[in-house]
Write a structure and sequence with these properties.
mainly alpha; 69% helix; 308 residues
């Protein structure tokens, strides 16, 4: 018989489940897209000193030691060995940059910019096919808005110039490589941290970009040290901050959403060009920019998807 003086068993309260903020991943991808919007600006400012392929090579080379230092300081260890998806993603990205730069010499900037941005949109369909990440219904509406917005923003200000089918096909190939880069980067994040992933990506990009520069016949070195300013700017803002935020955010963001969010980059580039190069947007282009921003907002609405 139990004594009436026996104390009741203490009530055990289970610990509260950790709060998962599903907006952090898309916000990081958005921030990365904003940083990458500076890429064409830095490239344009550096073309007086270096060729486009050489600028890309030095961008990767300057970024590598910074990324290594960040891994050691933040993770307090050396980067873990790369996986095959990192190697694939780095190859896709480097070839994408090379083909896009090449396409700019054969077709209009508007055509090349619009076509290559289609690659970001197609990421969602590839993730659906290969990763079984079915987008929400709102995502499909966001895709339509993003495509229309990108078309109007890129093509709406075209005054002169004629596209070349060869350049357009190169831009289309670059767009497909963008999709492969985003998809493989997300897969690489399953076993690697964000900083580790972008570090190994950058090392792969250095190797391939050096071969591309050699084959293109461009000079590796500028005439004076001032020619390194643009690549250094691109290394810190675009490669370390931009790509770093996107790769890290991909670990918390469905690929379909990331593909739409990152398309904010041409809006940023257009806004900077307006103030820096006195290239005002037409009313039609402003409407396209607004449509892209609306697509970015709409793409991440709805039921959150569990993070990796």
């Amino acid at each position: 018989m139990t004594s009436s003086l026996e104390s009741p068993a203490p009530l055990v309260v289970p610990p509260a489940a950790p709060v998962v903020r599903h907006w952090i991943g898309p916000l990081m991808v958005f921030g990365g897209g904003v940083c990458i919007g500076f890429a064409p600006i830095g490239l344009r400012l550096g073309l007086d000193d270096l060729g486009p392929q050489a600028i890309a090579f030095w961008r990767y080379l300057f970024a590598a030691p910074v990324l290594l230092a960040l891994v050691v300081l933040i993770e307090r260890r050396a980067p873990r060995p790369p996986n095959r998806f990192v190697l694939m993603a780095g190859t896709f990205f480097t070839l994408d940059m090379a083909l896009w730069h090449w396409s700019l010499t054969l077709t209009t900037v508007s055509n090349a910019t619009f076509i290559v941005n289609l690659g970001n949109i197609s990421v969602g369909f590839m993730a659906w096919l290969f990763l079984k990440e079915r987008p929400t219904n709102k995502w499909f509406v966001a895709v339509v808005l993003a495509v229309l917005g990108a078309a109007v923003l890129s093509l709406g200000g075209e005054v002169g110039g004629k596209g070349d089918i060869r350049g357009d096909m190169l831009a289309l190939a670059a767009a497909l490589l963008v999709s492969g880069y985003m998809l493989c980067s997300k897969l690489a994040r399953r076993t690697l941290g964000g900083l580790e992933t972008i570090f190994w990506l950058t090392l792969v990009e250095i190797c391939i970009a050096s071969l591309i520069v050699a084959l293109s016949g461009e000079s590796f070195l500028p005439e004076n040290l001032g020619g390194f300013r643009a690549p250094l700017f691109l290394a810190l803002i675009v490669q370390v901050m931009g790509q770093g935020l996107i790769i890290t955010g991909l670990g918390r963001t469905p690929a379909a959403i990331a593909g739409v969010v990152v398309i904010v980059q041409p809006v940023v580039a257009a806004a900077i060009s307006w103030s820096l190069f006195d290239e005002p947007l037409t009313a039609l282009q402003a409407a396209g920019a607004g449509a892209i921003l609306a697509a970015v907002w709409l793409s991440q609405r709805g039921k959150p998807v569990p993070i990796d």
